[in-house]
Amino acid sequence: MAIGTKVGAMKEKTKIVHAGRDPKSNHGAVNPPVYHASTILYPTYEDLKHPKTRVQYGRRGTPTVFALEDAIMALEGGAGCAIVPSGLNACTTALLAFLSAGDHLLMPDSAYGPTRNFCNTFLKRMGVETTFYDPTIGADIAALMTDQTKVVFVESPGSLTFEVQDIPAIADVAHANGAKVILDNTWASPLFFKPYEHGVDVSIQAATKYVVGHADTMLGTITANEECWPLVHAAHGQLGLCAGPDDIFLALRGLRTLDVRLKQHMKQGIELATWLGERDEVSHVLHPALPSHPQHDIWARDFLGASGLFSVVLNPVEEDALAAMLDGLELFGMGYSWGGFESLVVPSNPARYRTATTWDVPGRLLRFHAGLEDMDDLKADLDKGLARLKAAG
Predict the structure, then answer these.
(1) Is 59 a catalytic site residue?
(2) Is 383 tagged catalytic?
(3) Into how many domains does the chain fold?
(4) What would you report as the CA-atom Rg of the chain, rounded to the nearest whole angstrom?
(5) Marked catalytic residue, from 15, 150, 194, 209
(6) What SS3 class is residue 329?
(7) Is 209 assigned a catalytic role?
(8) Considering 207, 238, 255, which residue would you say is the last residue of a domain?
C-alpha cells in the first residue's frame, strides 16, 4: 500500500490516522471499502493453481481485513496479525496455537475470568495442565517452570484487581526455559504498552474495547513476533475463524480516534480515581497510575499511559446499601464490558476466582470505567450514589 510503505517512519498519532489506508487504490476514498466476500474468482487455471494476490478466499481475508491487520501491526508491532470475532477468542486461539496434550501453562491468578474458565475446562479436557500464579511473582516464576511449560500467560494490569506484572523479568525466565510469553494487552492497548519491546512473543487484544471504542462491536486481534507468527496464522486458519466485514470497518473507524479518546479516558480515570480515594466510603483505590498503587513503579517504567479502567474497594456495607447506590446511578451503567465512550460500574468479588493467592479484603470491589462525559456530572452522580449508600447503611 502506498501509505503503508511510509507508516514505519510516522509518529504514533499519525500512524493511528493513516495505517491501513490506501486511498489511491480505492478511487480516492478516505476509508477502506467494506468487502463482503466468500468466493474469490480466479481469471485462469494458472492463477487458481498459483495465486498471485493476497485475496484468495473470504475466510482468509479481504482488503477490509488486511487494512485492520496492517493498522494494528503498525501500532503494536509483530510479524503478522490475525483478526478474530472476540477478545476471548483471541485469548483461546493464541493458547491453542502453542499448547498440546501433556503441556503445562502458567496463568496469572488475576486473569480475565473467561480466560481462566477456558483453562479449567477446555484445556483441561485437552490434557493441558494449568498452574495459576501470583501475578506479582516477577522473576521468582522460575520456581514454577517445568520441562513441560510451553506458555507463560501475562495480563497486566490484572482484571478487576489491577496487579501490574514485571513482564520483562517474567519473559526472561520463560525464554530461558523454552516457553513463549502471551500477553493480554487490552487494558493499555498498543498505544500505551509496546509488547515486543518487553519480551512478549504474542499479544492479544479485545478490540471490542478501546480499538472499536463505541460499545457496539465484538472483535479480537492477535499479533505475534516472527518466530511465533506461523503457528498463530496456522491455528487461525485451522479453526476457521473470521470476523464480519462490517465489524472490521467499525474497528477501523474507531481506531482513527484512539489517541485522543484513550488520552481523555486516562485523564478522566485518574481524576475520578483520585476523587474516589478521598471519599470516606472508599477503603482504597486500585489504579496503577496512582503513586499509592503497590506496583506503580513498574507501571511507570514500562507503560506509556493508562486507560480509563480501575477499581475501588468500599468500606464494608450491606448488599441493600450497595444496591441503593448502584440502582440510582444515572450516568454509570452496569455492564460487563468497557472501553466505549460511556461510563460503567460493576461490583465483583475477586475471592471467588483466586486459587494461587488470597483476596481477603473485607469491603466490596467496584470496577469503574471512566467514560467521556463531563467530570463534574460524573462526580455529582457518584456523590448522590454514595449518599444513598450511607443512608441505607
Answers:
(1) yes
(2) no
(3) 2
(4) 22
(5) 209
(6) coil
(7) yes
(8) 255
